[in-house]
Design a protein that fits this description.
Layout (H helix, E strand, L loop, with lengths): L1 H5 L1 H22 L5 H4 L2 H15 L9 H22 L8 H26 L11 H14 L4 H6 L9 H13 L3 H28 L4 H10 L17 H20 L5 H21 L1 H26 L2 H24 L15 H9 L10 H16 L4 H19 L5 H7 L6 H5 L1 H27 L4 H16 L5 H13 L11 H13 L5 E3 L9 H5 L2 E2 L10 H9 L7 H10 L3 E4 L26 E7 L3 E6 L3
Parallel strand pairs: 1-2, 1-3
Antiparallel strand pairs: 3-5, 4-5
Amino acid sequence: MDSWISIFPSILVAALLLIIPGSIVMAAGWGVRNPSRWLLAPAISVTIAAIAATIAPLVGLRWGLIPLAIITAVVAGIGLVLRRFAGGDDAPSSRGTLLTTAGALAAAAGGLGLLFARAFGGPENIAQRFDNIVHLNAIALAVKSGSASPFQIGATSDIGGYPNAWHAITTLVVELTGVSVPVGINAANLGFVAILWPASMMALVGAMFHRRRAAYVAAAALSTGFGAFPALFLNWGVLYPNLVGYAMAPAGLAAVVLSLRERRPAGVVRAVLLVVLLAGGVFLGHPNAFLALLAFSAATTLSTLLARAIAGRSRREWWTLAASAAGFAVVCAATWSIFRTSAEHSGWKPWQNLAQAFGEAALASPRGYTPTIVIAVLLVAGAVVAMRRPKSLPMLAPFAVAVLLFVVASGLRIDHPLREFLTNPWYNDSNRLAALLPMAAIPVAVLGAMGIYDAGRRALARLSAPNWARVVALVVALIALFSVAVGPNVRIAISQVHEAYAYTDDSILLTADERALLDRLPEETTEDALIIGSPRTGASLALALSDRDVTQRHIFGSPSPELVYLNSHLRNIDADPAVCSTVDDLGIDYVLDFGRQDVMDQSQAVTYDGIQDLAPGQHLVLVDSEGPEARLFRIEGC
């Protein structure tokens, strides 16, 4: 872990960026005595960063602390004004609850930080996965251009815009600390998985369980216990923007739950504005995270209204329920229609049959991950408690939605109309829906934990157990809860992350030889050099890892006809004068040849036959090489 200690300042900066802006807003708008409020701070910080990064280039500001501070001050100022009318939080929590919550979050953050630091291997390692090409290069371009707006991030892969919440924070970490792009990404990701995720989850559980100390502790422990999230998104894809959007979604749902309890008009206005703010942040994390938040919010709101209608039995409450159901139906149908994806991007096949899919979903153990016994017991206990207490229905409703979406995507045939209707906005990708299961399952598991905890306390009281017995029982319960972090469900997923981040001779994106050559590139090429290479072999990462411009930044870019020609014919440079002419026109100086190993589909390697497996010649001068495949050529004489 010595290498991680050396980049501790970068990790600290990431943590402060996640904590400070949101804490200022929460203190200004609500005060500091409600844990469920300040646990929203990381999600609000990410939202503010994404908004500030979007606005900064429009007003001529370089992305950095100044636009972040301006937007933080504006949002905090709005919070102060609203607080004058709505007041602070009612019934502030005790100091003991605040300290217990802070300690539980610290324990979860420490555990998750250690788990994922070990999984990454080293701070300079990168995920050897397809989508990482665009994310690495997007950060490099954002730092170089001074912009992390959605439009700049989209430009990396030649599209109009791309959600920028992950990129905004990560770019700031790189800019403020001066570390390399891989180090900045790993430091930021540790902040997202160790602070943003557990804090958001604890905020949701605290809102649902009326700030019970034991609930905060259980939520913190359980946030460490699932392989499907956040570990899955650090292996599958990798899906960094989705990671941030999903990690923020529980905070958005917590704001919805808190808003349902407001009765004062000014309080309702403030609560709704908070929901809108966080929903916007989740959207800037990733649109399908926003869809998940919308689905969970609909389930939570309607189940809450249903419970009230059953308890109150007034006609007005039933009419409110009916109107809300109709409203959510219209909004969801419209939103699902807007965010439909093309057949090209939504062709992911189901994994299994319906029975298998339901079993994996019910235990929140998709992809064949071994269920962790403690979590399985708590989920069963939570279901039992919910059946005995109808008021607990809102805690179960989001899990029902998550189970439905996962079962449909992973268990129905590929052409089933229900599958296409419900899960198309997630590309019909079972992995993206598998990752929703933990955030929806944790409130159910906490409900089970609270049921067991309350039953245990009553039993000890009946037995007149001495204090030492109560302490022992509490310690055993805490050990059992936090043991989920080393359960089989997590171990399998973490081992897959470790494999994804390892450099080997067979790495699908960059081998150890290729990375070594890229590390030497700044000394062997000029700063204004333009390099051609197949993005499918990782050669395009010369931009992110060596600060050298490349002809293609991502696999799905839009190369010009001239570049397409060179990709197929540059190997004929000595015999075909048109090749030299095209090289001159484009201003290309070097060729980075990493062989034919393709990051995703080996059959696509033929597209770049003109710049793979080259031999030195009159116009191609071998400058450097590492191992049998990684070679750098200088183009001369054109």
